[in-house]
Amino acid sequence: MFTYLLKKDKEVSILLIHILIAILSFFSIYFFIVWFYIIVLANIPAILNKSTRSKTVLVFFGYIFGLEIIRRMIKASPFIPYQVGNYLMLIVFSYCIIKTTSSRQGLIGKIILILCIPGFYMIPFENYFVFFMNSFSGIICLGLAAVYFGGQTYNSEDLRDFIKITILPIIIIAIYISLKTPTLNDVDFNLAANFETSGGFGSNQISTVLGLGACLLILAYISRQAVFSKYNKALSFVVISFFLFRGLLTFSRGGILTGLVAAVLSYLYLNWRLKKNISKSVVRLTFIALGCYIVFTISNQITGGTLAERYHGQTSSTLNGNRKINLNTITTNRSNIALAEFAIFSDHIFLGVGPGGGYEARKQYMGTEIASHTELTRLLAEQGIPGLLIGVTFLFYPLFRLKNSKSVKESFYLIAFFSLAIITSFHSSMRTTITPLFWSLSCARFSFPRSSKAIETGAKEARVNALVSH
User: Fold this and answer.
1) What is the pLDDT of residue 470?
2) Could you report the per-residue pLDDT of 329-344, keeping only the tens digit for each?
3) Cα 408 to Cα 402: distance, rounded to the nearest angstrom
4) pTM higher than 0.85, yes or no?
């Protein structure tokens, strides 16, 4: 199935197919349900086949995580489970680990899974399955995926295909919310997340996915990866602009800022390592920055200037003078939730209150039942010291991985993937599979062919060394 979706000579028709899926799904959810199961069932043989498994698993989850968000948007229950991404990750990666005998399978993933063991015994028995899926399965998926990807090596073509396949369902999302949104002139833009412009679904998740899509295309452009072989630059910029425009209108800042920050961090690293190409790199970044500024300006005008106030951290209370702008208003109450979870951790330091127990605990500490938005503080509150160790591993393993990277281009993508995973976990916890997928994928090895110029230089050096040795 993915062989067809990745064909270079079929790019226009493939894009049109995904636009059509978005339009059909707008009229009936059954078109999407059929498409979802076609994708899953068509790729089972390739996952079972040892020779095609590694590449298929890579592109399969790149595509599935977007489909999971669409399933939530169109409310495809009971035909597709709400946490279908986690179900598939648990099943597929468990199977792949059992069937893979690589001696270099990811040790870091095994460490995370071992640290999760106490959590299995701390989940309240009466709601075990619900609490496991909602509060514990995300970190288990991350550990399993890290074990598998830790034993895999992918080349530049694999990475390009992963980016391309990941973009396709995000196009469906962007088209669908455009159809679902009322005329923009009729939308009441205020200083809160906007559900009208996110298709009636959670604006945080929509913004997160659209920001990710824009980031991946920006990374490909900076590193000269031709995601769309035909009309590559023009088409890429159109899609980036579309993603940013729709993401900005959700008024959920985290996803868009995460994508742009990840791209900038990778760019700064690349610029630092490849000082000879700094002028060309600056031109590319300036072009991208100008495009982002134009999109933001247009979006801000459509919202009557409310968008700029939102990104400045303003709320209705701060504009009225009833509150001052502070960390809590800027983070939309996330900092207070995090502080409450620190307090829960200090009172239940050894094993926490158990996965899922955070809901009741936060109600006791904050006076209201509220969901956690930050995965690290939730780990502390719900898993205690094991959660602390998982959090330390989650934050600091990327430094070890980057230190041991063999390639500048590999490090460029590792910085972006780790940034996307970690920053997303700070504002959206593990509500999507972005954090488990991109963090664990960064445990894989990526090989990039040396340029012909570099090869020629290496050959000359080898000849010189041979002459000297004689």
Assistant:
1) 37
2) 888 788 999 999 999 9
3) 10
4) yes
Q: What is the pLDDT of residues 164-209, one digit of tens each?
A: 999 999 999 999 999 998 888 888 888 888 889 998 888 999 999 9
Give dist(CA 89, CA 98) in Å, integer. Answer: 14
Q: Which residues contact 381 (CB under 8 A, 6 or more apart)?
A: 341, 342, 344, 345, 348, 352, 353, 358, 361, 362, 372, 387
- Written as one letter, the residue type at 193 is A
The 10s digit of each residue's pLDDT in 390-427 is 999 999 999 999 998 888 999 999 999 999 999 999 99
* Residue linked to tokens 């028995």: 125
Distance in angstroms (rounded) separating the CA atoms of residues 66 and 173? 8
204 token code pair = 């945080």
Query: What is the pLDDT, as a whole number, of residue 106?
Result: 84
Q: What is the pLDDT of residue 460?
A: 43
Structure tokens at 50: 């040892």
What phi, psi does 228 have (nearest 5°)? -110, 110
Q: What is the 3-state secondary structure (H, E, C) of the chain?
A: CHHHHCCHHHHHHHHHHHHHHHHHHHHCHHHHHHHHHHHHHHHHHHHHCHHHHHHHHHHHHHHHHHHHHHHHHHCCCCCCCCCHHHHHHHHHHHHHHHHCCCCCCCHHHHHHHHHHHHHHHHCCHHHHHHHHHHHHHHHHHHHHHHHHHCCCEEEHHHHHHHHHHHHHHHHHHHHHHHHHCCCHHHCCCCCCCCCCCCCCCCHHHHHHHHHHHHHHHHHHHHCCCCCCCCCHHHHHHHHHHHHHHHHHHCCCHHHHHHHHHHHHHHHHHHHHHCHHHHHHHHHHHHHHHHHHHHHHHHHHHHCCCHHHHHHCCCCHHHHHCCCCCCHHHHCCCHHHHHHHHHHHHHHCCCCCCCCCCHHHHHHHHHCCCCCCCCHHHHHHHHHHHHHHHHHHHHHHHHHHHHHCCCCHHHHHHHHHHHHHHHHHHHHHCCCCCHHHHHHHHCCCEEECCCCHHHHHHHHHHHHHHHHHHC
Which tokens sit at 136? 């514990």
- 392/376 Cα distance (integer angstroms): 9
Residue 449 has pLDDT above 80, yes or no: no
